[in-house]
Amino acid sequence: RRLYFDTHALVCLLEENGFTTQQSEVIVSALVKIMNTNLDMIYKDMVTKVQQEIALQQVMSHIGGVKKDMIILEKSEFSALRSENEKIKLELQQIKKQVMDEITKVRADNKLNLNLEKSRVKELVSFGYFYSHAQQDRALTQTDRKIDTEVADLKTMLESHKLDNIKYLAGSVFTCLTVALGFYRLWI
């Protein structure tokens, strides 16, 4: 191990200041031992450049592996989300079709009921059954009530299906956001 000062010069300096040669050599020897002990302790905590580069390469390799795993996971998660979204879209389309079919069916039923009521009234008029104005008003009021009830039922059913569609849509949006935020958090 190299010493970065001149031990002989230190011995001479100590002798010039009143120490004997033996005392000066003992003092310098003690200083060298103390310095060597301190250097040993310092060197214990230090790593060599080669060790540092090996550790850095290991960390970089580990980071590369994690990045690859994240990319694979991201692709698989996004493909799963896409397939789930496609399923939800198909379900929404089926529900929309069912709602439209139901609306068409109810409209047809209402038209049929309305036409039946009209034909019944026409038949009664053609057979000579004449209603008084009060009876005609009552019959019209009942018919109007039936129509209003059917329309209100249709509106209620439409609102119910609309709410179901909104629930499915919100669920799929929140699912996508949750996964995206999870990936974002993992990358940071």
TrEMBL record:
Protein name: MCUR1 regulator
Top-level division of the source organism's lineage: Eukaryota
The organism of origin for this protein: Polioptila caerulea (Blue-grey gnatcatcher)
Broad class of the protein's primary localization: mitochondrion
Keywords in alphabetical order: Coiled coil, Membrane, Mitochondrion, Transmembrane, Transmembrane helix
Protein family membership: Belongs to the CCDC90 family.
GO CC term, one of those recorded: mitochondrial inner membrane
Listed transmembrane segments: 168-187
GO biological process: calcium import into the mitochondrion; positive regulation of mitochondrial calcium ion concentration
Compartments (UniProt record): Mitochondrion membrane
N-terminal signal peptide: none
